[in-house]
Specification:
The chain is mainly α. Helix content is 79%, strand content 0%. It folds into two domains: 30-70; 74-287, MetI-like (MetI-like fold, Orthogonal Bundle).
């Protein structure tokens, strides 16, 4: 009986010490999946899907297509050998990709400058917003093919026209997201700035712009991908100047070079993903420490 009481007293004392010193002194319990399981959960699904896609690719190339029509979808190993491992072909694709990259980045930078300026102007005056916004929507709704002749009349058929196409395609998301972000600051914070006699510049710099950063970066990531599309589309219509990846795509398609065509398409997608991820990295560096998209 005495032994039982002593055991109970020791258990009670251990519990009291645990509560008094906090949970940090209690034995740690490993929660959630292990690192290996977490890595497997992130890696296995895209890996399995990639294997299935490659298997479907081979199925289409060797089973569904006759040998005479296999140029429509060459098998993956042929694309790898001709498009990537042949340095002459791959270097040509890299040169075209670099030319399109310069056009895309130039157009994106100009679109950012124009978009920020218009969004700030519209955020400061409802009159300017009502006057400008309908024309921005109209410009976005116009098919780019419809204004290709006008672009060639005004800016020729060289690099400048390709940059103009990039600007037109990537401008609208920047304006919309930046304007939405600038207008998303809390009304109570505006009242507080008014109470302290803050001017428009101070309000814009210290309240509206920080509140708009998440929306701004969302627009930039969208426009970054669109600028790459604009550069490739511009290459199709404006052939003077440096050869871009769009001109290579058209040439490979006309010559029925299926391996090089698919390799160029893959590299174009790599460019778009790289630019998109670049702005995602900049977003994390700029606002990742204080912005929680889940609102936690």
């Amino acid at each position: 009986m005495t032994t039982t009481n002593e055991t109970t007293d020791e258990t009670t004392e251990a519990y009291r010490r645990t509560v008094s010193f906090g949970l940090d002194d209690a034995p740690h319990v490993i929660q959630g999946p292990s690192r290996t399981r977490s890595l497997a959960a992130n890696v296995l699904p895209p890996l399995v899907l990639g294997i299935l896609l490659i298997g479907g690719w081979y199925l289409i190339s060797y089973v569904m297509l006759d040998e005479s029509r296999r140029f429509l979808l060459e098998p993956p190993h042929a694309v790898l050998q001709v498009g990537f491992l042949d340095w002459d072909n791959f270097s040509e694709i890299l040169q075209g990709l670099w030319s399109s990259t310069k056009v895309a980045l130039t157009g994106l930078v100009i679109a950012i400058l124009i978009g920020f300026s218009l969004a700030i102007l519209m955020s400061q005056s409802k009159l300017f917003e009502r006057a400008i916004f309908p024309y921005m929507v109209t410009l976005q709704a116009i098919p780019i093919l419809a204004i290709v002749p006008l672009i060639s009349f005004w800016w020729g058929t060289g690099q400048r026209s390709r940059v103009v196409v990039c600007i037109i395609i990537s401008l609208f998301p920047i304006i919309v997201n930046t304007l939405f972000g600038l207008q998303s600051a809390e009304r109570g914070m505006h009242d507080l700035f008014t109470l302290h006699g803050a001017g428009r510049g101070t309000r814009l710099r210290k309240l509206m712009f920080p509140a708009a950063l998440p929306a701004i970066f969302a627009g930039l990531r969208i426009s970054a991908g669109l600028s790459v599309i604009g550069a490739i589309v511009g290459d199709f219509f404006f052939g003077r100047g440096d050869i871009g990846i769009g001109q290579l795509l058209r040439r490979y398609a006309n010559q029925l070079d299926g391996e090089q065509l698919l390799a160029a398409v893959m590299m174009s997608s790599v460019l778009g993903v790289t630019v998109f991820q670049l702005f995602g990295w900049i977003q994390n560096r700029a606002i990742g420490k204080w912005y929680d998209p889940a609102g936690v």
